[in-house]
Automatic annotation (TrEMBL):
GO terms for biological process: dGTP catabolic process. InterPro entries: dGTPase-like (IPR050135), HD/PDEase_dom (IPR003607), HD_domain (IPR006674). PROSITE patterns: HD. This is HD domain-containing protein. Gene3D superfamilies: Hypothetical protein af1432. It comes from Ectobacillus ponti.
Amino acid sequence: MQQTFCKDLVYDPLYRHEVKALPHEMELFQSKTLRRLKFLSHYGTASLYSSIMHSRLDHTIGVWSIIARFFPQDKELRLAALLHDIGHLPFSHAVEKTLGFNHHANTERMIREGEVNRILRKYGYNGERIIALLNSDTPLTNQTKFLGTDHFDSFLRDAYLVGSTTKKPGELLDAVRFNGNYIETDLETGLHILDAMVADHVSFLNPHAIAIDGLLSQAVLAYARYHEVELSFIEPLTNYELLYHLQTSECPYVSELVNVILWEPHRIAISEEAREGALQVDVKKVYDKEVLVGGKEITLWSAEAVCKLEQVRALQKSYYISYDIEKKP
């Protein structure tokens, strides 16, 4: 699903709304930094074995369009929404924690340096103010248990493309409002949003996705050691560029891992029980966000909402990954 640009108008087909972009926003959309996000899968390595192919740019435009719709005059918040994911690595979160990266820190560095900073300064914006917004509780994102725009778009976008929503995202968006920094709605809509949250987590935390995340991390580590390069070499790459590096490596172990990831994922064995020699991959973080209903947490109104949040939290577990050494005929 792609957004359509027409001069200064941006149409998001997920929500079926059109937003007028400001001149500095259009220049950022046309920058290499933002264009790179088109070649990073929002769905991580799950995009390698599923039909779900939407990008970080799709998500970014969705988040920006919601902020622009509800807060049209807050130009700095709109900029924060537009730039909030520019520091992501190839395949988004797939290798970030395992290899010791932090896309938030990368984002801050890219706002302070290079073409993004040049564009901001050209139009009189201070990058430090945008970074401060990214590190504060705002309608874009927050460190509380309540839902902001960033996760709202992720839940609805992913769940819709998985085929797990019973109401269209545009209908759900029409039914929400902001109570301060947090999304508020009626009980029925809130439960639909939580359904999307559950579907999203169940899908992107699918054991096969977790397994491929782990194997990709091992391939990147092995590549860096064999070719004697810093792990940071992957930071500016797109999905395709990273796969090219790995596929053209002369390291046999890297070649074997890439072959399994791309062409023979059926060889991967996954268990929740520890096995000798297996790679342990841990799911330590979930996005168990609450919607406000009548100014209060939805879980105070609905036992069903409590169960949905518990479903998401139950996905925090460890998996043990291995694969057959000998190829099957």
